[in-house]
Design a protein that fits this description.
heterodimer, A: 336 residues, 15 helices, 76% helix, B: 303 residues, mainly alpha, 13 helices, 68% helix
Chain lengths: 336, 303
């Protein structure tokens, strides 16, 4: 197992270096003056400008600058936001839990509903349920989720008044951030009202964010279930006289879920990193909204650091899924 | 043209049905309703986009100062003057959606075409040359794939500045890696086959080998990718427009229309409903068509 981990890490190295290089190059690719983009102060006088250029090493060769940038990264220095003047890493740490909470809720919904729907559709192949489930999931898969979010707000928040329109928790609640996940923190505090408020705020965004993964999981479960149900060992299990529930639930599902794990893992990576549209629609203070705001405010250090952090998160999650895959399926472990 | 070429290649040994695009494919494609429906809707939208100037009742930017936020014809207080109602600036929503079809489908088409040409070229280069070229191209693609697609698009727009054309460039950047990977994998699978060796023995140069011998046999997955890519292109363009990073107002782009009228959601449901519906129907049609094409062209990828 250790060799596999090391092998995978070695394969990731070029990608990681590439990502840091991209983040580094960004400042040279962007139109405008790097000093003005990096420095909080505006309208710098020429002498100070030249001094800053030298201080920041912008007059040195590109490669030297890059090595220096890597050195900064190694010490955890990702620069400071131009707008808030706070270190980028610190800002990321405050917005990341919001995205994590939202993504975990969304992926839970997706698996909780997607897997049973996929299994039932596969068992009723060609039947009305299969047809309906697959039509709905293709629609969900094609959904512009920013529009979907607005429609749900219109229905549930405006017409029915069931859910709040935006934010993470009611303003009257004050939960000390232990984990940053409001649902967990409010439980730790034993504050039932805050928990209810946080859950209330979470439902709609989670539903919106879950839409596409749910559709993907349902489709994937169905197709992989269909494949497994045709396998010889399932016929054997049936021939032995096992109950259909045992055959499907125990024998078939275990193997059918292996590709689903990959899909879920990849979805987690994408969700963690983005949820950009959902967060924008619901004013959810997470990573996605943070990055979009950085672009519109031209807060370059945040964008640069944010991209690097997001890409690293995605790479780490993908690696984890890759390894999990090997753990779940001995055939893959041996092949690697 | 494609049909003739693949029919000739079909006799070569070791070839699966996968790459052939001909009568059998059409038969298999036609037998399911979804893809045909998708194709029909795409045809309709294309016709609407091409004839937008004649079909739209009004100009997309014409403001009717007597009719701000007029409801659709069938709703209370609506009139047949504005079938789908008007937006906060008194512009006819139907006209803007019709004109928007031109933007979404037109720019989407250009983006997918550019991405496929660029991606296929890079994929061929990587597939045929081992070593440095392959490594550089593929590692670059890995980096591009490490960023979630919308974030990559946002980075591109942040570098180039928000506009419709730059949003299209962002879509190209998002899609190129998929074409490169697909082409490279297909080339790797084909280049060891006898017919390629035979062609090489007959003195075919590298360019001829790449474009005339190998590429025609890799078209099936590429066509599927291009169709599905079209749906993501339309979706990403709209998403960028919605975030204010794509087409700028007053361009009648569907995502931008949504962003423009978001603040009026509570007062006028129609300003948000119809542009989004147009996006959904278009994306859904391309996904239906893409799924159908995949089933018909490439049984191995059937899902």
């Amino acid at each position: 197992m250790l060799t596999i981990v090391l092998k995978r890490l070695a394969l990731l190295l070029p990608t990681l270096i590439g990502v840091t290089f991209l983040a580094f190059l960004l400042i040279h690719l962007m139109p405008g003056d790097p000093i003005e983009m990096l420095m909080p102060e505006r309208g710098i006088d020429p002498a100070r400008h030249a001094q800053l250029r030298a201080e920041l090493g912008l007059d040195r060769p590109l490669l030297v600058q890059y090595v220096r940038y890597l050195g900064d990264l190694a010490t955890g220095d990702l620069g400071r936001s131009i707008v808030t003047k706070k270190p980028v890493l610190e800002e990321f740490a405050t917005v990341f839990p919001a995205t994590l909470e939202l993504s975990l809720a969304a992926i839970t919904l997706a698996v909780l509903f997607g897997v049973p729907i996929g299994v039932l559709a596969a068992l009723n192949r060609g039947g009305p349920f299969d047809y309906a489930a697959m039509s709905v999931s293709l629609t969900g898969y094609s959904m512009p989720i920013f529009w979907w979010g607005l429609l749900l707000i219109l229905l549930f928040s405006v017409q029915l008044g069931w859910t709040p329109v935006s934010g993470r928790i009611g303003v009257i609640h004050d939960v000390p951030p232990t984990t940053g996940l409001l649902l967990v923190d409010s439980l730790l505090e034993g504050d039932g009202a805050a928990f209810a408020s946080a859950a209330h705020h979470l439902v709609l965004p989670a539903l919106v964010l879950a839409t596409i993964p749910l559709a993907t999981v349902a489709r994937m479960t169905r197709s992989s279930m269909l494949e497994v149900l045709n396998a010889d060992y399932i016929r054997t299990a049936r021939a032995k006289g096992l109950s259909p529930l045992r055959v499907v639930g125990l024998h078939a599902l275990r193997n059918a879920l292996i590709p689903v794990v990959t899909v879920v893992g990849l979805a987690v990576g994408v969700l963690l990193a983005g949820a950009i549209l959902t967060e924008t629609v619901f004013s959810w203070p997470g990573v996605g909204k943070w990055l979009v705001d950085a672009v519109s405010r031209r807060d370059f250090p945040v964008l640069r650091g944010g991209i690097l952090l997001v890409a690293s998160t995605v790479i780490a999650v993908n690696l984890f899924v890759d390894l999990l895959y090997g753990l779940l399926d001995p055939r893959i472990r041996r092949a690697a | 043209m494609l049909g003739v070429r693949s029919a000739r290649h079909r006799r070569s040994p070791g070839r699966s049905r996968a790459a052939g695009i001909g009568w059998g494919t059409w038969q298999s494609f036609r037998s399911s309703h979804g893809p045909v429906l998708g194709l029909a809707v795409i045809g309709m939208f294309t016709a609407i986009a091409l004839g937008a100037d004649w079909l739209a009742p009004y100009s997309a930017s014409e403001q009717f100062r007597d009719a701000f936020l007029a409801p659709p014809a069938w709703a209370e207080g609506g009139s047949t003057r504005f079938l789908l109602g008007t937006d906060p600036l008194g512009r006819d929503i139907l006209s803007r959606i019709i004109q928007g079809a031109q933007v979404s489908l037109g720019i989407g088409f250009v983006a997918v075409l550019s991405a496929s040409v660029l991606g296929v070229a890079l994929g061929l280069a990587a597939g045929f040359s081992r070593g440095l070229v392959d490594a550089v191209v593929m590692r670059t693609m890995d980096v591009m794939l490490a960023l979630p697609s919308l974030l990559l698009a946002i980075v591109v727009v942040a570098v180039l500045g928000p506009s419709l054309i730059n949003a299209a460039a962002a879509v190209v950047a998002v899609q190129v890696p998929h074409f490169v990977r697909l082409t490279r994998a297909a080339v790797r699978a084909e280049r060891a086959k006898d017919y390629v060796t035979a062609s090489r023995l007959c003195g075919a140069g590298p360019l001829r080998l790449a474009f005339c011998t190998v590429l025609p046999n890799c078209t099936a997955p590429l066509i599927v990718q291009a169709t599905l890519g079209f749906s993501t292109a339309v979706l990403d363009l709209a998403a960028l427009g919605f975030l204010g990073l794509g087409a700028q107002p007053p361009t009648p782009e569907w995502g931008t229309m949504l962003a423009d009228s978001r603040g009026f959601l509570l007062r006028a449901w129609w300003v948000v409903t119809f542009p989004g519906l147009a996006i959904l129907i278009t994306v859904l049609s391309f996904n239906l068509l893409g799924d159908g094409l995949r089933d018909a062209l490439d049984p191995r990828l059937r899902r």
